[in-house]
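cron nightly-structures :: item 1 of 1
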Amino acid sequence: MVDSIPYRPARRPPDEVLETLRDLYQAMNSRRSVRSFSPDPVPREAIEQAIRIAGTAPSGAHRQPWHFVAISSADLKAKLRVAVEETEREYLEIAPWLIVVFRRDYDYDKDGLRSKNYYMTESCGIAVGFLLAALHLAGLAALTHTPAPMTFLRDLLGRPENEKPFLLIPVGYPAEDCTVPNLRRKPLEEIAEFR
């Protein structure tokens, strides 16, 4: 049986709920994926806090089937750059941090037996969403990148075979001359319906 604690978040009045969500939408609607990073350093503690926030995401059976490897080492970034395709090389070394997200397909229990994880892909996707939101709200830029194939990341970073690379995320401040496509997001009526 799972130990339970009371959960009673403060109930806000409807107008405050709407104002909070409208403000959050405005903030998140300005988020863009960036391929042009500044080499300016980002404190390790900022990355730690963003990963802590990602770790609060819901997960199947609360198994938290993810592992984050945050890389700032120039040597390791150079090795990683060499292993990915030519067009993606530059920002992998310029961005002050690379976060590799691994999906943990199973764990081991205290007796060394496999212990199944549930909804690993969905859980990791939600955690990455929390991570990207946290980074953006802190004023940092990021890019979700999936080099193909990605298995080299497990070997390069010495991760166990029960983990599979999920995403590679360069993180930093956008470069001074950074530009992004002027994209239009689908309006609410194209992405949702209310019955």
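cron nightly-structures :: done
The CA atoms of residues 54 and 129 lie 8 Å apart.
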